[in-house]
Amino acid sequence: MDKKLPFSQVLAIGLMLFSMFLGAGNVIFAPMVGQQAGTNVWIAMAGFLITGVGLVLLAIVALTRGGGTVERLAGRVSPLFATIFSILLFLSLGPIYVIPRTTSVVYEIAVNPLVQNKSNTSLYLFTFSALFIILTIYLSWNTSKFVDRLGKIITPIFSILLIVLIAKSFITPMGRIGEPQKDYLSGVFIKGFTQGYYTMDVLAAFVFGGIFIKTISSLGIHSEKEVSKLFIKAGLITIIGLVALQMSMAWIGATSVEAIGFKENGGELLAQSAMALFGQVGIYMIGTVIFLTGITTNVACLAAVAEYFERIVPSVSYKKWLIIFSALSLIITNFGLNTILTLASPILLLLYPLAIALIALIFANNLFNGHKTVYSATMIGVGFVAILDALKEANIAPETINHVFGFIPLFTNGTGWIVTGIIGFLMGLFIAKARKEPAILIDIAGQKIN
């Protein structure tokens, strides 16, 4: 029989989940939207919050309805799609992109400003990244301790520091909200919508599902129904925290121009804003915040990817996968932040539309009777344009692609996949009805009903 958890424990679990989502992307991208959007900031943030926050809760609910793991969710399309999508997802959220990016960002903001001798930057980066990833391994070693380590210790510390920084920005603003820059003069909502991709939180929701379920199982919660309820409660706590954070970060960015001017990235923007608000002490404050949010992100991602690969390759243990992926992360980290960030956009523009389409299909499942053909046709429609967007972002024949496929509505704004996805959905529904495919319905606990 499952234990009944007190609210304090549920809150700790929610804070744990919040700390897993709260990484470098959450703290860096919203301030840049605020600074660039200027007086249009709240329109831009409306779009940003949809993809950067709102879809996170929907992803959590979709995951519980779809079977609890991303493989079972994506398996509604096909086993091959589930395998390819899951592997790309976990590798991107783990050793190929997120862990190296997070480690590099922490170094650039929390460590590099304090380094006196800039001639040995590569050595300093290697030394720091090795120590940081060793700490990540240590904190990831035992997932049963996640709630105590992340939810009860680390999250409150960086939350207090962030609250102090944010409160100061409201009490004594750095300046007035500036004028919108070129990219935010028109299509502001769509621009904010696509910028929300960069938080990677919708993808992270799929990745963290397995490790979350494993963690709460150690607390005596085992039934899928109770796991789903707890997942959603923790998700609500996470969403409230993320909305407050993103809006506050956007405010800091929007009011920063008079004090620090325009910056090239969110890390530099936050560091300079912290100094403008608190002087030299601000550098240590934001450095501590970035360090703690970075370590929680790394721990969550490393544990999740190791847990996933242990499931698909059980002959290699969870702890061995931790070592393997940590070593790979360390190597990629030391190629430098610019190289790592270059990989980001194409990956996101490919995976994000597919993830959003999966979420939408799970919620609409019973409306189209869960027909497999509908899933497959929709993902083909979405994936076709997502691949084109990824190629353009990688600077592979962008002009040719725009010329040939520019007739697709919303294509130039990076959201043409919505149109082709709807077309795929309708075609799949027509084919499924013609074939008289059997219904595969979902009840509220995420179980199949024939």
Automatic annotation (TrEMBL):
Its membrane topology: Multi-pass membrane protein
Keyword Transmembrane among record annotations: yes
Pfam families: Branch_AA_trans (PF05525)
Main location: membrane
Residue intervals passing through the bilayer: 7-29, 41-65, 77-99, 123-141, 153-175, 195-213, 234-254, 283-309, 321-341, 347-367, 374-391, 411-432
Highest taxon, organism lineage: Bacteria
Name recorded for this polypeptide: Branched-chain amino acid transport system carrier protein
Gene: brnQ_2
Family annotation (InterPro entries): Brnchd-chn_aa_trnsp_Livcs (IPR004685)
Job description of the protein: Component of the transport system for branched-chain amino acids.
Family recorded in the similarity comment: Belongs to the branched chain amino acid transporter family.
Compartments it resides in: Cell membrane
UniProt keywords, alphabetically: Amino-acid transport, Cell membrane, Membrane, Transmembrane, Transmembrane helix, Transport
